[in-house]
Amino acid sequence: MSSSNFIDILLAIILPPLGVFLKFGCGAEFWICLLLTILGYIPGIIYAVYIITKEQAEFWICLLLTILGYIPGIIYAVYIITK
C-alpha cells in the first residue's frame, strides 16, 4: 500500500466523504459516501475505505465477514482462494 493510499484511508476514517472526494472528486462515489455518512458514521467509513481500496475488495469483504462472524469469513476466504 502506498503512502498516498494510507493518507486517503486515514482521511476516510476521520471524515469519510473527504477521503473519497480527494480521491475521486465530486462524482457518484462522493455523494454515496456523504449519504451513508449522514445516515450513519460507520457505514460511511466502510464505504469510503472500500472505494479507496477497490483493488483489494476481496480482503475487505473477507475482513467484514470475519468481524460479523468467524464462519462466514472462513467460507468466503476458502471460496476466493479456490475460485
What does this structure look like?
This protein is mainly alpha-helical and 83 residues long. It folds into 2 domains: 52 residues, no CATH class; 30 residues, no CATH class. α1 runs antiparallel to α2 and α1 runs antiparallel to α4. The mean pLDDT is 79.
Keyword list:
83 residues; mainly alpha; 2 domains; 6 helices; 0% strand; globular
The description of the largest β-sheet is: none
Number of strands: 0
Task: Tell me the fraction of residues in β-strands, as a range.
Answer: under 5%
Unreliable segments of 5+ consecutive residues: none
Task: Quote the distance from N terminus to C terminus.
Answer: 24 Å
Secondary-structure-derived class: mainly alpha
Mean pLDDT: 79
Estimate the global geometry from the Cα principal axes.
globular
How many domains? 2
- Write the H/E string, N to C: HHHHHH
As a percent range, the share of helical residues equals: over 70%
Rg calc: 14 Å
Tally of helical runs: 6
In summary, what is this structure?
By secondary structure, the chain is mostly helical. It has helices at 3-14, 16-24, 28-39, 41-52, 57-68, 70-82.
Helix-strand layout with pairing:
Elements: H1 3-14, H2 16-24, H3 28-39, H4 41-52, H5 57-68, H6 70-82
Family: Belongs to the UPF0057 (PMP3) family.
GO cellular component, one term: membrane
Transmembrane segments: 31-52, 58-81
